[in-house]
Write a structure and sequence with these properties.
seven-stranded mixed beta sheet, 11 helices
């Protein structure tokens, strides 16, 4: 049976280092050496979108690890002046896109999606589709891709798409009307399957569901719960946990759906993170810890799956 190999990469800010390090270890493992060379489609959200674009351009996982390690502190650089202008982070995004754009430009240059070495699908959310008629004007999910066929985005700059997918609300300003695709697909596994089998793709690039094998790699999770059987909460109480609830919820359902559709042809890698110290999307001080956690994470199950299914 033919195989159509998909790599799906979650969002998670600086925790993308965890994903990149696990991929580096798997790609260097004796049983799965250079398995990334066989990937047909790389799909990513937010930091996973940056990873996807970098890998599709030809960067190695180690190259991308070094981007997080050496440049992460520059990307998430929050100045005192910026905080003052934002009234203590109440009315403005926490970080500027200036440093992010500068660092990504060094990696992606002037590459367009059409010039990448692999097919990609990158999630973002369009805040305004710009329709002329009011009744047709709305926000919507957007999947940027370079498949041959209807509606591809091959002429778009990879740098621009990287900025669109990583414009996480409250962390970064929107870019050209787009925000982070994590608002609807922080785990883009189902986006990956849908894009691969899309009738809009030319026949030569269209996958059959029965041929798909999918490796989904997360950026780690911290076991979380809310006590109580009846929470009579309003906006003030829900404001803090709601984003995490929604992100974990959409990631979890994508995992469930992918597993139901693909069975043993699907595997999810999602390391458990410690409660303390908390590792957030912008935890610059925890970069060494993230690298260590990913280096210590057992890849035996995943490497065995790749060896058998890839």
């Amino acid at each position: 049976m033919a195989k159509y190999r998909i790599l799906s990469l979650d969002g998670g800010g600086l925790r993308g280092l965890i994903t990149a390090r696990i991929l580096q270890r798997l790609n260097d493992h004796s049983d799965t050496k250079n398995f990334l060379d066989k990937v047909d489609l790389i799909v990513g959200t937010s930091t996973g979108g940056i990873l996807a674009l970098g890998l599709a351009k030809g960067l190695s996982p180690e190259d991308i690890c070094q981007l997080y390690i050496k440049r992460g502190g520059k990307i998430f650089d929050d100045s005192l002046l910026d905080n003052i202008l934002d009234l203590g982070k109440v009315i403005g995004a926490e970080y500027s896109t200036t440093d992010l754009k500068r660092e990504l430009k060094k990696v992606l240059g002037a590459t367009t999606l059409g010039k990448l070495k692999r097919n990609v699908a990158i999630t973002a959310f369009d805040l305004d589709n710009g329709a002329k008629q009011r009744k047709d004007r709305h926000w919507k999910p957007k999947i940027f891709h370079n498949f041959k066929g209807k509606g591809n985005d091959s002429k778009l700059s990879a740098l621009d798409v990287a900025l669109y997918t990583s414009a996480a609300p409250t962390y970064f300003p929107s870019v050209d009307g787009y925000i982070d695709g994590g608002v609807f697909a922080n785990n883009p596994s189902m986006v990956a399957i849908a894009q691969a089998i899309s009738e809009d793709n030319v026949a030569a690039e269209r996958a059959k569901l029965a041929d798909i094998v999918l490796l989904s790699v997360g950026t780690g999770y911290t076991p979380t719960y809310i006590k109580g059987q009846r929470l009579d909460w309003g906006l003030g109480q829900w404001a803090k946990p709601l984003v995490d609830v929604l992100m974990d919820g959409v990631s979890g359902i994508a995992d469930y759906q992918s597993r139901q559709l693909l069975g043993d042809r699907y595997i999810r890698v999602q390391p458990e993170l410690p409660e303390k110290p908390a590792i957030k999307l912008d935890s610059v001080k925890q970069i060494p810890l993230m690298d260590q956690l990913a280096s210590d994470y057992s890849i035996s199950k995943t490497s065995a799956w790749i060896k058998q299914n890839w």
